[in-house]
Amino acid sequence: MTVGGTGTGDGTAGAGRAIRVVVADDQSVVREGIVMLLGLLPGVEVVGAARDGEEAVALVAEVGPDVVLMDLRMPRCDGAEATRRIRAAYPGTQVVILTTYADDDSLFPALRAGARGYLTKDAGGDEIVRAIQDVLAGQAGLAPSVQRRLLERVTAPPPPAAPAVLPDGLTGREGEVLGLVAEGLSNPEISRALHISTATVKTHINNIFAKTGARDRAQAVRYAYQHNLARPPGAPGSSIT
């Protein structure tokens, strides 16, 4: 954990002073690169860098930054949990997520935890500064791709209702994935339909196989039909004819 700079410690950017930023990322090369980039930008002062969420929370308590640029996938305490702690204990500090991941399973937990901004790591310096300024002004600092995803989520029709209690310990999301497998969708098609990554789809399918005892997709589909989690082709109400 590194600390530098001075400031008011109240978590608000005063007129005429640089915006004070903490960077949190577990990859040293990435973390140092972000710190170097921010150091070249006018109006921004990096006051600390953290290797994980635990260090990020401690740094916020110590230096009172205006904004934390927070990675998501970190050891000990991930970015979403660190964001929740920071926003609960230090509401004057805003959080902008800066991550490789833009799938729903990463995006929505971070926003629910209190992050006001969400950028992917291909963002340029101007975009990062704009997001920082937006969140300090009380606005959302979201990458255009994230804004589109949120709009899609809001306007998408609700998924078909699943049974209140699924068999064999299947989760609601696993039930959704199984239903789409039964409709013949591929992993990339399921990924697009549910707005999750293909890696997350594969994880859900592996969990489905383990819980249902299915050895392949055909057996999983048969299981779905037997437990009324999907309708066979041609059955009343089926989307497959």
UniProtKB/TrEMBL annotation:
The keyword Transmembrane does not apply. The keyword Ribosomal protein does not apply. Keywords: DNA-binding, Phosphoprotein, Transcription, Transcription regulation. InterPro entries: CheY-like_superfamily, NreC/VraR/RcsB-like_REC, Sig_transdc_resp-reg_C-effctor, Sig_transdc_resp-reg_receiver, Tscrpt_reg_LuxR_C, WalR-like. Residues 163-228 form the HTH luxR-type domain. Residues 20-136 form the Response regulatory domain. SUPFAM superfamilies: C-terminal effector domain of the bipartite response regulators, CheY-like. It comes from the Bacteria. CDD domains: LuxR_C_like (cd06170), REC_NarL-like (cd17535). The modification 4-aspartylphosphate is found at residue 71. This is Response regulator transcription factor.
